[in-house]
Structures are given as structure tokens and as C-alpha cells.
Write a structure and sequence with these properties.
Layout (H helix, E strand, L loop, with lengths): L15 H4 L18 H19 L1 H7 L3 H9 L2 H5 L8 H10 L5 H6 L17 E2 L10 E2 L7 E3 L19 E3 L5 E3 L17 E4 L2 E4 L20 E4 L4 E4 L1 E3 L4 E5 L2 E5 L4 E4 L4 E5 L21 E3 L2 E3 L8
Parallel strand pairs: 10-12
Antiparallel strand pairs: 1-3, 2-3, 4-5, 6-7, 8-9, 11-12, 11-14, 13-14, 15-16
Length: 316
């Protein structure tokens, strides 16, 4: 399934301290940069990341967080714990450097984990060591099983390597539907469900091409409309159409020939005629259900049926 598909978006966003991989491993010493507290660095990074997300895809920010302020507040949660986590290379100075670099990143780089280099963190823990975030691991990858908040450091493979998730692939690569790490296609490259295009492009007739707006022709079988701006391929008209967003308690699903989803990580519980009602996200600590809802509001994860924030100290 193409990463351009509009329903993928809840998994598209992550902050550098929690999910990026790479070679940066800065120190918090004054000789490598101005002194900054972990709280200041985390606040700066959350603001920079959310502002970049809002600039690249206001629709996606609304879908996941509801608004910019909520995105920033959620982005701060757990971040100071990553700074002090066992083996972490995400020091306060490193996080602040990432925050400073993010405004200059392209949207493609932001959404595909290709950079900026200041936001690619790695730590000192070897493969097989317990972890909560990739910034703790030498490989930059902490592989956390679904429904858990702790995982283990593991290797990342290059293009052509087998994978079960993009965490198994080097930064900037995607685990395609056929279980192989692949690069994103540039403009003019060949594409299909297992060879996706960059987020700024769509796969049209087997070639990565510029995106069209609402009303552009599309193929319902591969949904080659740009989900980052909230478009889906209407099967009835074979044209790209905007996905509406509504809050908890509102009607959702197939409405008036279009499609309506729930904002702020809500779930549309669909009944008859593919219509339903939005169920809002669960609060941290409350019960959750990944499939039926309620879901958790990022960065909380649904672990053992409860919305939990990552706790590196518990992953020893």
C-alpha cells in the first residue's frame, strides 16, 4: 500500500528524539554550544517540529493533534526523559541544534526521515539492549513491538533489505508493502505500491509526478492523491477530493458523496451505510483500543489497553 494513502497519517509524524536514526551524537558541554536545559531544548524542538508540520500539512496536524498548541504541548511530553535516558545521544545541545535546523528542512525530508542531519540521533547501546527510543541505540533504531512501550536496539538495513517496519530500514528509506526497504522515488521515477514516490509527488500511470489539487484525476485502486494535504480518490468520480475533518461526537464516514474523518486522533465508528460518529482520543492513562477506538493522542501509545507515555527508566 502506498505511503501516499490518506489513512496512513497517524503514523507519519515523530519527533527527532524519539524516532530518528543517524550519526549525530552531540554533547551538552558548553564547548560544543551554548548552555541549554533539557526543558528549553525540548520546548524549542516541539515548537519547531509542530510549526514545520503545520507549514507542510495543516490538514495532517489537525488530523493528529487538532491544533498547533496541542501539538507543541504533546511534543514536550517525555522529551526530557529521553535526554537523560541510558545511552542517549539526544543531549540538550543536540536537540536545540535540531530545532534550529528544522525550519530549513524540506517537507520531503521532514516526512521521510532524511534529515536535517542535526535531527538524526544515535546513542551508545548495542543491538539487543533494552530501549525506549532510537536515540539510545548505536543503530539509531529502537524496535518497539506493537502494544508495548519498551523495545530493543536493532540494526537497520539498506535498500533491498528485508523489513517488517520502516524502523528496520536506514534513515530515509521506507519498508514497502512487500517487506523490502526502498528509497522514495524522485520526479520521473517508476512507481507502484511497493515503490512509493516522495510525499510531494504522486504515482500517476507508474511514474512519480507532481500532485494535483481537488478535482485531479486519480486511480481508486492505488489512491494516488496526496494524503498529506488531505485528499483521497473518490471511487465514484475517479477524482481527488478533500477529506473533511470534524470533532468528537460529529457525524463521520461516507457523507454526501465525500468522506469525513475525525480530528485530534479520533476514530470514526462506522455503522450502516458507512456512516458513524467520531469517538475522541483517550486521555493519558485511560483505556484504549487501536482498532475500535478510542486511540491515544501522540506521543502516548496504546499498550496493554491503556494509553501510556514512554518511560525510558522502565526499559532497563
Amino acid at each position: 500500500m502506498s505511503r501516499q494513502a490518506w489513512w496512513f497519517v497517524l503514523t507519519a509524524v515523530c519527533f527527532g528524539a524519539g524516532c530518528s536514526a543517524g550519526a549525530s551524537n552531540s554533547s551538552s558541554s558548553g564547548s560544543e554550544g551554548p548552555l541549554v536545559t533539557s526543558e528549553e531544548a525540548c520546548s524549542a524542538l516541539a515548537a519547531a517540529s509542530c510549526e514545520k508540520l503545520n507549514g507542510c500539512s495543516p490538514w495532517l496536524l489537525q488530523y493528529v493533534y487538532g491544533d498547533l498548541e496541542t501539538c507543541i504541548e504533546r511534543g514536550k511530553l517525555g522529551c526530557p526523559d529521553i535526554v537523560t535516558a541510558n545511552g542517549s545521544g539526544a543531549t540538550a545541545v543536540a536537540l536545540k541544534a535540531c530545532a534550529d535546523a528544522l525550519p530549513g528542512a524540506t517537507c520531503d525530508d521532514y516526512f521521510t526521515d532524511r534529515g536535517p542531519s542535526e535531527c538524526l540521533f544515535s546513542g551508545s547501546l548495542g543491538n539487543g539492549t533494552a530501549c525506549a527510543a532510537g536515540a539510545q541505540c548505536q543503530s539509531g533504531a529502537c524496535k518497539v513491538p506493537a502494544g508495548q512501550t519498551c523495545g530493543t536496539c536493532g540494526p537497520r538495513g539498506g535498500a533491498g533489505s528485508t523489513c517488517t517496519s520502516s524502523a528496520d530500514c536506514e534513515a530515509g528509506l521506507l519498508c514497502a508493502g512487500n517487506g523490502v526497504c526502498v528509497s522514495y522515488g524522485e520526479g520521473g521515477a517508476s512507481c507502484d505500491a511497493n515503490h512509493p514516490c516522495l510525499p510531494s509527488l504522486v504515482c500517476n500511470s507508474g511514474t512519480c509526478a507532481s500532485v494535483g489539487g481537488p478535482g485531479a484525476s486519480c486511480d481508486p485502486q492505488i489512491n494516488n492523491c496526496n494524503g498529506y494535504v488531505g485528499l483521497f480518490c473518490n471511487a465514484a468520480s475517479s477524482t481527488c477530493q478533500s477529506v473533511n475533518l470534524v470533532g468528537a461526537g460529529a457525524a463521520c464516514g461516507a457523507i454526501n458523496g465525500g468522506y469525513t474523518l475525525c480530528s485530534t486522533s479520533g476514530v470514526c465508528r462506522v455503522g450502516q451505510n458507512q456512516q458513524g460518529t467520531c469517538l475522541g482520543a483517550a486521555a493519558d492513562g485511560n483505556t484504549c483500543d487501536v482498532q475500535q477506538g478510542p486511540r491515544c493522542l501522540s506521543p502516548a501509545a496504546c499498550a496493554s489497553g491503556q494509553c501510556k507515555l514512554s518511560n525510558p527508566d522502565a526499559c532497563q
